[in-house]
Sequence to fold (1035 residues):
Amino acid sequence: MVVGDVTTATDVLVIGAGPAGYVAAIRAGQLDLDVTLVEKEAYGGTCLNHGCIPSKALITATDVAHGAATAEEMGIHADPAIDLSGMVSWKDGVVDQLTSGVEKLCKANQVSLLEGTATFVDEHTARISHSGEGQGSESLEFEHAIVATGSRPIAIPDFSFDADPVIDSRQALALDSVPDSLVVVGAGYIGMELASVYAKLGTDVTVVEMLDSILPGYDDDLKRPVKQRANDLGIEFVFEHTASEWYEPDEDIRVVAEPVDGAAANGGSAEAIDEERLELDVEKVLVAVGREPVSDTLDLEAAGVETDDRGIIQTDTRARTNVDHIFAVGDVAGEPMLAHKGSMEGQTAAEVIAGEPAAIDHQAMPAVVFTDPEIATVGLTETDAEEAGYDPVVGQFPFRASGRALTTGDADGFVKIVAEESDGYVLGASIVGPEASELIAELCLAIELGATLEDVASTVHAHPTLSESVMEAAENALGHAIHTLNR
Amino acid sequence: MVVGDVTTATDVLVIGAGPAGYVAAIRAGQLDLDVTLVEKEAYGGTCLNHGCIPSKALITATDVAHGAATAEEMGIHADPAIDLSGMVSWKDGVVDQLTSGVEKLCKANQVSLLEGTATFVDEHTARISHSGEGQGSESLEFEHAIVATGSRPIAIPDFSFDADPVIDSRQALALDSVPDSLVVVGAGYIGMELASVYAKLGTDVTVVEMLDSILPGYDDDLKRPVKQRANDLGIEFVFEHTASEWYEPDEDIRVVAEPVDGAAANGGSAEAIDEERLELDVEKVLVAVGREPVSDTLDLEAAGVETDDRGIIQTDTRARTNVDHIFAVGDVAGEPMLAHKGSMEGQTAAEVIAGEPAAIDHQAMPAVVFTDPEIATVGLTETDAEEAGYDPVVGQFPFRASGRALTTGDADGFVKIVAEESDGYVLGASIVGPEASELIAELCLAIELGATLEDVASTVHAHPTLSESVMEAAENALGHAIHTLNR
Amino acid sequence: DTEETGTPQDRVFVPPRLRRKAREDGLDLSSVRGSGPGGRITAADIRAASAADDGGQETPD
Ligand SMILES: Cc1cc2nc3c(=O)[nH]c(=O)nc-3n(C[C@H](O)[C@H](O)[C@H](O)COP(=O)(O)OP(=O)(O)OC[C@H]3O[C@@H](n4cnc5c(N)ncnc54)[C@H](O)[C@@H]3O)c2cc1C
Ligand SMILES: Cc1cc2nc3c(=O)[nH]c(=O)nc-3n(C[C@H](O)[C@H](O)[C@H](O)COP(=O)(O)OP(=O)(O)OC[C@H]3O[C@@H](n4cnc5c(N)ncnc54)[C@H](O)[C@@H]3O)c2cc1C
Fold:
């Protein structure tokens, strides 16, 4: 590593090696651009190291155990023992395999890798500072930059992540023992996914949520099976409360939850206030109330790049910021903060820099929640469609009518498809149930291709599969489903 | 039930209530046709009662147990006990739910249901004979008939299904105890699926196959992971042998397997012959060497309907037989003998009768093998495409490079996509690996809609999912996959 | 902004391969008239529109 101040140059500087940044870098390399990827921590970013991958690994592993433990109906009697350190080291092995894969893929695509923290010096220069062994810094001149610095968990007042019993999602994915009890603050997708993991590991979980339901933003009918199963797992919910403080009366900690619109806010009596305030004695508290862009540690101003007041870098359909040769992709460029959104933007930015006619013009952007059961959505809901001026028709198919779902012992949920009545173009879909995350792919393709209900309904789907439910939902919207009654 | 000879009339007579027949009947009902569905045994046919559904139920259930028992790597220690009678009664419950659903759906769509065995009397008359309580028969006049009598297992010489230790797939799905040892004759998909089920239940399984590999007709690279996992499960294979006879020397039975091209066939010495002949001492022998159409018990000649020499009723793209107003659908109308093929034909026949412009003109007909791992294919293989005069380009993505596959602990296999090089139109796909059965749906839609590699590659796929592998295979064919090296 | 929602006016039901072709040719898809089934925009429609844009002749298929 270079110590001191050396100036080198690159055509494309990519800052951050998460799924937005490393994909941008690989694609740029494939397009024969001279590209340098700077990462301060670990290849693969949040997603591979502390997000998508470790969470899905633990979700799947706890499901294997939970599935076998609750299969008496199927004639299976098992009492699986989970050794958390074994599970975590397996998960770490998966992460290592993927992150070292990312590193290899970057190299194989001629991406120069640089470890360090990048900050902007001016419109065409960045400083890369190295900590640890190769301490020091260097300057890097660039023709184009792609900012892909991602996001970090939002902290709430009085719950500093530095205090041991207060953890964020990253720490929750790396615990070395199963807590007896846990408060999860926030019933968004990250909170709900981790709540299930811990409930399946045997932790007593209480979820505290400011709003009046889980998974804000999702339709009620999609949430219902998830809420039901969470209840079945013994997860407790405290809605319309915020976690206001915590202290350590004894071995456990005490988390105080205040009502959002309660007596206190309404100037009620001391008794009324006390009655609504909850004290939860638990071992740990996981704060998962959302994520904020990492844009304040980059000296963006030095390059003239603007953000909105949440710190999100504003971009156009070419992933360009207000500064023409600087791009922003992934979480730092705003919602939806999802890995595949970032990868798509990263790919687009690289192609635009290479002069290709690329644009962010996807019609379909899926979102998946890996709760039990999973939720997956794409495109417009019925309400969205109405608001956009469409005349939507909706088709639905319940998994309890699916032969394949019944043979897996998991038949809660449904597939719903929304289309324009007049011409049948598919506008959106939502699925809650088994393999929702995989089933949504067909509907993404349908929307992207401009398919109609008839196209989906006339495509032969293999029997017995869950994907037949997609076809049946389309047939239902057309009024001639075979395996469910039509509207 | 009516006793004696009464004549009634119907517009559409459907014979057989399997997935071809009951779908035809429901669709005809939806199209306001007067339709009568005759079934001699059980609603849902082979598929729901003795095929797709019970086999998939047992495959999934044994996988739940096997998955937990082999998850030590994930930190899960379990030693599940399987109570076969519990598992079978759960499976029977699933079947009952679906078959009674079929009955209800038929009624809700105004289908008249008739229990009995149908035979043709002439071009416009059938006789329905009732056994049991309502013994007797009646005549039924019809304007149109749809023959959907399905198929039955082929017996081999000297292995009569009437002898107790010799079983067919139907009996294999309804055993009340786990045999210690089992010979499976035939390594086609039914034999391989059931071999895995029994191996996972703890049976010592030996598969005897005439040809030199499992799953005739599938590409070698697709078979390899299936063969490997079968070996890992302890399944033994005897290739290039036929089961020639069996007898009962003691408690077990002895199954004799003769080499197909061995010394005997080549006039070799008695010693050479003896050496190649194998004697397998087992508890049961399952014969699964294929299925033949049920067309010989219908008096088809009385209606003038012709079959080929295998007994398959020949049909045109309208599902019509040589007799204009008589249609044939499903297994009795030939390969591929798959439920969804039958349902599609049934639907087409009903629509044609109702005067709709329907035809069997699907571009994509998937086939799934529910082995461990699953295989799913659709459209043309590379070789098919070359033979058809295309200039195919192939893209591939291995599941070991898929984050989602690694998080499930099941990363064997790959997605392969075949397209025409010049214009990128997708011609076919094959998948071996986790959820292959569900992943194929997107590729069916792609082929059906005339999508190109670029369309599939530009569709955003949710992360982390197995379906990303479909996108990556398309990108690989285009030379710019992100997560695998390009050709 | 990656908002995917559109209005019936600006939503175009055109596969990615043709959207890219239109961008290559600098065409605004909302101004292209679709001649395919249900008013779908086809490859030929895009070729015709770019030819017209260039003031050139449409090349026959
Ligand atoms: C628990 C959890 C579960 C999740 N599950 C899913 C899921 O299932 N599906 C999904 O789509 N999304 C999921 N997400 C969201 C997903 O992780 C993010 O959308 C994704 O990681 C964003 O990618 P990115 O490349 O924009 O940023 P990140 O992945 O955050 O990567 C940014 C990288 O930039 C580096 N960096 C930052 N600043 C600098 C600097 N100045 N110099 C050098 N390097 C820098 C960071 O170290 C980091 O490696 C999950 C997130 C969490 C927390
Ligand atoms: C073990 C096994 C597993 C299978 N797994 C799959 C799978 O996973 N996926 C798949 O696609 N396919 C699978 N199949 C094949 C599938 O079962 C058949 O393709 C499907 O059942 C064919 O449907 P059909 O309606 O043509 O005939 P069938 O389902 O065979 O139904 C025919 C019906 O007609 C009735 N019938 C016959 N003659 C008369 C008569 N003269 N009068 C009145 N009724 C009559 C019969 O009683 C029967 O109910 C499997 C088959 C088996 C054996």
